[in-house]
Amino acid sequence: MKIRDLKRKHREAVVSVWPPQVLADAGATLVRPGDGVLKGVRRIAKRLSLVIEHRGREVVGRLECDEPSTLDAVEKVLRAHIDEPIQAIGDLDV
């Protein structure tokens, strides 16, 4: 399965986990889903914190999966693809 095809439950809805949600400072340039380059991956409990470089700035993205084994697999793939575009990473298999 491609990373971009992964889903998780959020309340009553099923949502995509890729591209990651990006958290930016107030007043910062809007980062569209899929923009930027992956610069780092950090595991925080049941989610991944992703450092993404966008237009010379680093922003933080968040990724969550329902199953811990899926999150483990995604983390392994992401760590192997540091410095690659977010958009291209979505096409990788998990």
What does this structure look like?
This protein has 94 residues and is an alpha+beta fold. It has one domain (3-89). It is 17% helix and 37% strand. It contains 2 helices and 6 strands, in the order E-E-E-E-E-E-H-H. It has helices at residues 68-79, 86-89, and strands spanning 7-10, 13-16, 21-23, 37-44, 47-54, 57-64. It has a 4-stranded antiparallel β-sheet with strand order 3-6-5-4, covered by helices on one side. A two-stranded antiparallel sheet has the order 1-2. Strand 1 and strand 2 (13-16) form a beta hairpin. The radius of gyration is 13 Å and the shape is globular. The protein starts with 6 loop residues before the first strand and ends in a 5-residue tail after the last helix. The mean pLDDT is 89.
Write out the strand line-up for the largest beta sheet, numbering strands in chain order: 3-6-5-4
List the uncertain runs. none
Order of helices and strands: EEEEEEHH
Helix count? 2
User: What is the averaged pLDDT score?
Assistant: 89
**Category by helix and strand content:** alpha+beta
Gross morphology: globular
The helix fraction, in percent, is 10-25%
Q: How many domains would you count in the coordinates?
A: 1
Major sheet attributes: 4 strands, antiparallel
Distance between the termini: 6 Å
Gyration radius from CA atoms, angstroms = 13 Å
Residue fraction in strands? 35-45%
The total strand number stands at 6
List keywords for this structure.
alpha+beta; 94 residues; single chain; 6 strands
Topology, pairings included?
Blueprint: E1 7-10, E2 13-16, E3 21-23, E4 37-44, E5 47-54, E6 57-64, H1 68-79, H2 86-89
Antiparallel strand pairs: 1-2, 3-6, 4-5, 5-6
